[in-house]
Specification:
Elements: H1 2-20, E1 28-29, E2 41-44, E3 47-49, E4 81-87, H2 94-107, E5 109-114, H3 120-132, E6 140-142, H4 155-168, E7 174-177, H5 180-183, H6 201-210, E8 214-216, H7 235-240, H8 254-267, E9 273-275, H9 285-292, E10 297-300, H10 305-308, H11 312-321, E11 326-327, E12 331-332, H12 338-346, H13 371-385
Parallel strand pairs: 4-5, 4-12, 5-6, 7-8, 8-9, 9-10, 10-11
Antiparallel strand pairs: 1-3, 2-3
Helix pairs in contact: 4-6
The structure holds zinc ion (ZN).
Zinc ion (ZN) binds near residues 87, 115 and 176.
Length: about 400
């Protein structure tokens, strides 16, 4: 009697499960905490099922949102802006500069900081072209580079002398020091040049003495250091651009690079550092906040809009709290992409497209920053950090 009851109850469950799965196709049961088998998805608790037709590739699945909410497009920044992370292409002659000026006008960028490590004769020629342009002489400034190759005996003297010459020629800062510093650049003895190598101390001291901010890009998104599997947020990007993978057998880990970078910033408190791309910690603002607790550290927002715009409340509060330490910068110069930044910073719009699908499988939200914060992020912080950037064209 009891046996019959148990059998009846069990078959009731089986019937119920089959009723949930689509007719003719039974689902796959899993244990709590287990993942569904490949090609299936969880349709009820612990019951997985495959779609009736073959699933499309992630490249071809492009659902159109039916959400209707207010839309506020922002073609130009609300206040004139400084692009601290500029890679503006050709700025070597009057025509190229004026073409750049027209693009800058269309998006509200008042001053472009070319962060291309320009040094020596090239820097002198670039500054001569800028100064000779009546229209653009106050709208472009240039960062110089530091040659970090072959650090060893005699290197520091040469590097400091070149830095002084470049400042005399008009450089307003240093950068962008690229991710090769830490990932791949080697010393004269063949070993990897660590970010916190003490042999570099004289150059950081010189930057402090000359009042130059040091703009530095360290590592890359943490996913680039991980296995490329179907749990990796950047699977598509890594599959499109295999050169962006940093496997542990050939490269230092993300954490190793973060540790060296933080040592560099901490060990040189008189030098001002600007961590590019929000230090690749825009996905962990609590951690980035700890970095900004170092008073000599600033950060810049280029190419991480996808992380800012997916956490509108947290990002809003972070930008308000660290409003004196964040600089606008865009990185790749595509004028049609800047309005996405303005929309995220200035509006409270919801669930809108990002400009580069392979970066992010999600939508963006506006973080609606107050005007006082926008002004600091757009230009006041950059003007504070760099002597030699013209202040004409900015509100008082
Ligand atoms: Zn850059």
């Amino acid at each position: 009697m009891r046996h019959q009851l148990v059998i009846a109850v069990v078959s009731l469950f089986v019937v119920a499960a089959q009723a949930v799965a689509q007719p003719g196709r039974s689902g796959t049961r899993i244990q709590p905490g287990q993942e569904c088998p490949p090609g299936t998805t969880e349709i009820r608790p612990n019951l997985c099922q495959a779609p009736e037709t073959a699933a499309p590739s992630i490249l071809d699945y492009r659902p159109k949102s039916t959400l209707v909410t207010p839309v506020h497009l922002v073609p130009k920044s609300k206040f004139p802006s400084i692009d601290f992370h500029g890679h503006p292409g050709d700025i070597s002659n009057a025509e190229a500069l004026e073409r750049l000026g027209a693009s800058m006008d269309s998006i509200g960028v008042q001053v472009m900081i070319a962060a291309n490590n320009t040094s020596g004769e090239q820097l002198k020629n670039t500054m001569a072209a800028i100064r000779a342009s009546a229209k653009m002489k106050d709208r472009v400034r240039v960062l110089t580079g530091i040659n970090l190759r072959d650090v060893g005996p005699g290197w520091a003297e040469r590097a400091v002398a070149q830095l002084e010459a470049d400042v005399a020629a008009g450089a307003v800062g240093v950068g962008e020091i690229g991710k090769g510093f830490g990932l791949s650049i080697t010393k004269a003895d063949g070993s990897r040049l660590k970010l916190d190598d003490p042999e570099l101390k004289p150059i950081w001291d010189a930057c402090a003495r000359l009042g130059l901010p040091v703009f530095i890009h360290t590592a890359d998104p943490q996913e680039f250091f991980k296995n490329i599997d179907l749990t990796n947020e950047r699977w598509l990007e890594l599959a499109l651009f295999p050169g962006r993978r940093f496997p542990p057998d050939r490269f230092p880990s993300f954490e190793q690079l973060m540790t060296e970078r933080d040592n560099l910033f901490r060990n040189n408190p008189k030098t001002t550092f600007v961590a590019a791309h929000m230090g690749w910690q825009a996905n962990d603002l609590t951690r980035l906040a700890k970095l900004l607790d170092l008073p000599n550290v600033y950060t810049e927002v280029g190419a991480v809009l996808y992380d800012i715009g997916r956490q509108p409340r947290g990002a809003h509060d972070f930008f308000v709290k660290y409003q004196d330490r964040i600089l606008f910068g865009k990185d790749s110069f595509q004028p049609e992409e800047y309005p996405y930044y303005w929309r995220v910073f200035e509006t409270a719009d919801e669930y809108f497209d990002y400009y580069r699908g392979y970066h992010a499988f999600w939508k963006l939200y506006g973080i609606a920053l107050p005007d006082a914060v926008l002004k600091k992020v757009y230009y006041q912080n950059a003007l504070k950090l760099m002597k030699g950037v013209p202040t004409s064209g900015f509100p008082k």
